[in-house]
Amino acid sequence: MKRIISICIILTLGISCSVNKSKELEKDVKVFLNDFQSKLQGSDEEILKLFTGSQSKDEILKAIVILQNKDTTVKSHIQPDEFKFHIEGSYIVVEFPVELTASGQSTETSLLSFQLFKNDRQFRIGKLEGEKLYRQFSILKNKIEYAKELARRMADLKVYYDRARELQKNYDSVIWFVHHKNMTYYYAVKGVYNFDSLKKGTLQNCKMGLIDETGKVIVPVEFDLISNPSMTFAEAVEVTNNGRVGCYSLDGKEMIPPNYEWIVPYEKGFANALVKKDPIFGWLDKEYAFHENFPSEEAEKSIKEFEYLTNNAFRFGIGHQDLISILYPIEDSFRGNGLIIASSVFASNGILPIVNDGFVTLKDAEENRLFQYGDDYIENTNEKPFSVSETLSAFISNIKTRYIGGRGEFYTTHKIILIDKNQKLLSSIEAWGADFKFRKLSDELFESKAISETDAGPSIWAREANFPFYSYFKFDLGKLIRLKSNRLFQCTEFVKMDSSYLSGDFIFYQNNNDVHSKFASSETIRTMRDDILASYGFIFSEAYVG
């Protein structure tokens, strides 16, 4: 009985201590939020002293300026009393709502979040997550300030909607349109079309065709998908049926029947293109007749060593291709949302999805009057293949995206793409970050290394702005599989570290100046130690102290 009473007393004391600790933490966070709010009207230098980590000054201040209420059109109102917080490892995540108000508009509520840790016994913001706030603010501001111009642009689009409605009389639906040279082309379908399913690669219960603005049929309504104009050949579109591609000219003639896995333009000698008719490589002559094998050793090298990809850089987006526009309801037409249907060589190699959306279609030359938010362009480069096993190779495909309307501008992703001896795509896996490197550590283990470009990842927790983060992969059953880890610094879990993991040309900020170092700071090493301890369930005496 005494033992039971003793246990109850211990449990009660433990719960009481935990509750007191939580209340103490809540009080400390509230004090910090009040201090943060009071400093908003101070100088940028004073505000930036509250931050540490790899977020750029511009990214931080783009969100801060909204909270400072310097804008005359849209006002923000922080709701600090409604904050919520929770502990993640040795850090605190704090969230609180921000109301956005404007004359004649309904109040909108957004969300701002901080990730906090203590440095020299004082709270510092390691990460400010304000993308949602920035986007909502910008959309509301532009909606008001450029209402007349938006209305004019929508009126300009009406002629294409009206023509689509006329053309639709002969089809189940007209879903897209595209301007090319001096002609507008419309994508018509028969059957049931669903854009979200199409993006996922789900086979549609419909067929697609292409019609010009006069009503002339350019491509009969017999295909699963039709590309943007001039993606593969000038004045032509790629057509896809049952996973095989061909081409039609924009004057309505079939150039290449849909018999091929991919088509690569190759205008040298007697050749016009290189193709693959699974599993046979071949080429098309000037009349687009098929021949097996390659027209030359140079052509063979171009394909088998991926030189047609690795020797070139490719850009996709407004100003580089004629973007397809989705026929939204007219009241939503300002959304634009330009499409690029990837040509077969990029889709079959897993470099790009077949359907790529989210490209901006409405912007002025100086980009100071934005009507949309999305991708301005994406740039693709590819690295030479390397051996993964006796029968498999891989190559790295890099995608750099310029995003308009966010606090950041450029974002980089990478695909590690596995192929067999016949260059057939087996699988791919994505990775992120700048200065990306990928290497084979052993037959069982692969490592990627990069610098974070976003508000996430271990780089944000290092004092150094450019501290690298690592990810690890294993090769299993023809696939690269990302190893799971609950650590920010995964190199501490999967490899026996040497000094190279802590060495580099690092930069950190001190008194608003860039300081260079060749070795990781003591703060970063301490954070790595805490990360290891937290992964084993270690309970810190002060859970929110870094």
Keywords:
single chain; 546 residues; alpha+beta; Nuclear Transport Factor 2, Chain: A; 3 domains; six-stranded antiparallel sheet; five-stranded antiparallel sheet; 11 helices; 24% helix; flat; disordered N terminus
Low-confidence stretches: 2-17
Largest sheet: 6 strands, antiparallel
Q: β content, as a range?
A: 35-45%
The number of helical elements comes to: 11
From the spread of the alpha carbons, the general shape counts as flat
Strand elements, count = 32
Instruction: Quote the distance from N terminus to C terminus.
Output: 42 Å
Radius of gyration: 28 Å
**Overall average residue pLDDT:** 85
- Helical fraction: 10-25%
Total discrete domains: 3
The SS-based structural class is alpha+beta
How do the helices and strands line up, and which of them pair or pack?
Layout: H1 2-39, H2 44-48, H3 57-67, E1 75-78, E2 84-88, E3 91-101, E4 108-119, E5 122-129, H4 131-145, H5 147-167, E6 173-180, E7 183-192, H6 195-199, E8 205-212, E9 217-223, E10 225-226, E11 236-241, E12 244-249, E13 254-260, E14 262-265, E15 271-277, E16 280-285, E17 290-292, H7 297-304, H8 307-310, E18 314-317, E19 325-326, E20 338-341, H9 344-348, E21 355-359, E22 374-382, E23 386-387, E24 393-404, E25 410-419, E26 425-432, E27 434-440, E28 446-451, E29 468-476, E30 479-482, H10 491-494, E31 503-510, E32 513-519, H11 522-535
Antiparallel strand pairs: 1-3, 2-3, 3-4, 4-5, 6-7, 6-19, 7-8, 8-9, 10-11, 11-12, 12-13, 14-15, 15-16, 16-17, 18-22, 20-21, 22-24, 23-24, 24-25, 25-26, 27-28, 28-29, 29-30, 31-32
